[in-house]
Design goal:
The protein is of the alpha/beta class. The chain folds into four domains: 18-160, Methylthiotransferase, N-terminal domain (Rossmann fold), CATH 3.40.50.12160; 179-295, Transcription Regulator spoIIAA (2-Layer Sandwich); 306-416, Transcription Regulator spoIIAA (2-Layer Sandwich); 421-476, OB fold (Dihydrolipoamide Acetyltransferase, E2P), CATH 2.40.50. The protein has helices at 48-63, 87-106, 117-122, 125-129, 145-153, 201-205, 213-225, 254-262, 282-290, 307-312, 319-332, 351-364, 381-385, 392-416, and strands at 7-8, 39-44, 67-68, 77-82, 111-116, 135-137, 158-160, 183-187, 189-190, 209-210, 230-234, 242-244, 251-253, 269-273, 297-299, 337-344, 368-373, 421-429, 436-440, 446-450, 459-467, 471-476. The strands form six sheets. Strands 1-7-6-5-4-2-3 form a seven-stranded parallel sheet, with helices on both faces. Strand 2, helix 1 (48-63) and strand 3 (67-68) form a beta-alpha-beta unit. Helix 8 runs parallel beside helix 9 (282-290) and helix 12 packs parallel to helix 14 (392-416). The radius of gyration is 23 Å and the shape is globular. 43% of the residues are buried. The structure holds S-adenosyl-L-homocysteine, iron/sulfur cluster (SF4) and FE3-S4 cluster. The site of S-adenosyl-L-homocysteine (SAH) has 17 residues, from strand 16.
Amino acid sequence: MAVSAIFAAVMSSVSDSAFTSYEPTVAPVAATHIGSPRRFFIETYGCQMNFNDSEIIASVLSAEGFQLTTDCQQADVVLLNTCSIRENAEQRVRARLSEFQSLKRHNPGVLVGILGCMAERLKAKLLEEEHIVDLVVGPDAYRSLPQLIARAESGQKAVNVLLSREETYADISPVRLASNGVTAFISIMRGCNNMCSFCVVPFTRGRERSRPPASILSEARQLFDSGYREVTLLGQNVDSYRWEDPATHAVVTFAQLLDQVASVHSELRIRFSTSHPKDITDDVLSVMADHPNICRNIHLPVQSGSSAVLQRMFRTYDADWYRRKVDRIREYLPDCAISTDIIVGFCGETEDDHRQTLEMMDYVRYHQAFMFRYSERPGTYAARHFPDDVPDAVKSRRLQEVIQLQNAHQLQRNREQIGKIHHVLVEGPSRRSPQQLAGRNSQNQMIVFDARQALKGRYVQVKAVSCTSATLIGTLCPEPTKHLND
Ligand code: SAH
Ligand code: SF4
Ligand code: F3S
């Protein structure tokens, strides 16, 4: 198919202030297609925000009469919601596309769509590189998916990668996919205005915009009423959430939003992610201290422990500033866990820089860490200005050292919990055994314990008796707790 046949759907931009109702989108049962309803399959890569986007996509398509299938062989439309954060994330998607070639051979009518960050980064180029692809749809264009699918069904390739300054999908009630019925994500903002030199997200997700608080609160209430007991507020940088009422110009900050969501119900736990160290305020810490149902866990990505590296990363803080932020969190919330992201082998990283990252880890003793080798991303400031000069073998060795230290810290942290009683929200059976239940404490530490009763979605007290570096193993205390603070 010639790329000139590409259809670029131009959506009229929707202003947030135009929304008057936040009622859930009703998924009609009737199909809009002649014969049986068309079925879509969706596979998601990348961050929690992308998973939440897939739930929005499922809602948009359900409203048009499409039916979700978990079997790609049964699907009329196969969608991959993709991630570009590191090269290997994109390679996984390309490998998956080659697997779908046989699917398309057996059923030439099936449509294959690339959605999300890879669609936004590569745009129509994807159609040239991957002939199997029929649809390319960026993160702000999901409302146009039904029209794009219709276009592709008529034999033309369809692309919409327009980024929006307003789109927050505020009025769309996500269809919860692969849900445990207990924990859910709520996106509170989209995009990112930071320009970390290594990062592709500002290019794939566009400018920062915040979702109206009324729609966030309404979604939190609906989730609580349907039995959910934990929500995670999502954004690339939640602390820069800022919503201005178009009529009164009153501003809602992240601290105020957090306060409002935490007030929905004392038995609804709140988490949030991600906090950029430069933006998290004392106001946020103080709201956390006021609400025991806001979990004692802050994801505060450090990226590197070396001020020289942080400067090249354009993170806008240095190592001492970050340490002071950690101290501040502990002043307000002595029992607060801190988790992080770390990149090893960024451009120009020396052995001394690496040692400073290990020292930072020793200082904070993170409860959890996501650790990555630097992967150069085309178009970013770092790709254009700094050579990717740390050899692969050195990156791998440094990553191993960081992982080893993190495992040691997690084991220490978990051992400190042995003998203590934890308030645990039960998420369901443990992965290992149906006789065991699993849940998390406020600090996001996973706890498994034997239980005969069906306690999913309940708060229980569990005494930790042993542990690995990843998990606490406990015994259930006799009476389930009714309130978080009991
Ligand atoms: N908005 C979040 C992070 C989003 S991306 C924040 O600012 O903290 C998640 C993590 O991926 C980042 O924190 C970083 O550690 C990692 N990451 C981003 N770009 C990367 C790259 N080019 N190579 C390796 N890791 C990267
Ligand atoms: Fe990327 Fe930095 Fe934005 Fe996070 S804050 S998404 S690392 S640019
Ligand atoms: Fe990946 Fe896009 Fe998320 S690049 S990490 S899916 S914002």
